[in-house]
Design goal:
Spore Coat Polysaccharide Biosynthesis Protein SpsA, Chain A; 5 helices; alpha/beta; single chain
C-alpha cells in the first residue's frame, strides 16, 4: 500500500464526506493504493455514523472509535498502529489541510528519501486565539 492518511477527529460530522471525497479524488487521479483511517476521538455528534457509511461505500476507509475523548496524540497513535501504508500522512478533519499536497509529500518521502516532513498553515481559517486557548480554564 502506498499511503495511509490518518485523520483524528472530534465532532466533525459536517466535513467528513467532503474530506473523504477530496482525498479519494487525489488518490485515484494519482493512482495511489491508499487507506483513510478516521479516528473518532469520542465525538458526541454523528461523526461515527458518517465514518461507517463512508467505509461501506469505500473499502479504503477504516475507522477507530474511542468511547471518550483521549486527545489528538492518542488518536494519532492509534492511527499509526493501524496504518499499513509505506507513507503515513496526517490531516485534520476540519478541511484546513489540503489533500492536493499529498502527491508532493509522498514524493518527498518515498522518492527523495526524506524520513519526515513537517509543515504549518500559512493562512488559518479559524480563530487562532480560540484555537490555542483552552475552553476550560
Amino acid at each position: 500500500m502506498d499511503i495511509s492518511v490518518v485523520i483524528p477527529l472530534l465532532n466533525e460530522e459536517e466535513s467528513l464526506q467532503e474530506l473523504h471525497d477530496w482525498i479519494a479524488k487525489v488518490m485515484q487521479s494519482n493512482r495511489f493504493i491508499y487507506e483513510i483511517i478516521f479516528i473518532d476521538d469520542g465525538s458526541t455528534d454523528t461523526s461515527w455514523q458518517v465514518i461507517e457509511t463512508l467505509s461501506h461505500k469505500n473499502p479504503a476507509v477504516k475507522g477507530i472509535r474511542f468511547q471518550k475523548n483521549y486527545g489528538k496524540s492518542q488518536a494519532l497513535d492509534a492511527g499509526f498502529e493501524k496504518a499499513q501504508g509505506n507513507v503515513i500522512i496526517t490531516m485534520d478533519a476540519d478541511l484546513q489541510d489540503n489533500p492536493e499536497e499529498i502527491p508532493d509529500l509522498y514524493e518527498l518521502i518515498f522518492i527523495d528519501k526524506f524520513d519526515l516532513i513537517s509543515g504549518w498553515k500559512k493562512k488559518r481559517y479559524d480563530n487562532v486565539f480560540s484555537k490555542n486557548i483552552p475552553s476550560k480554564l
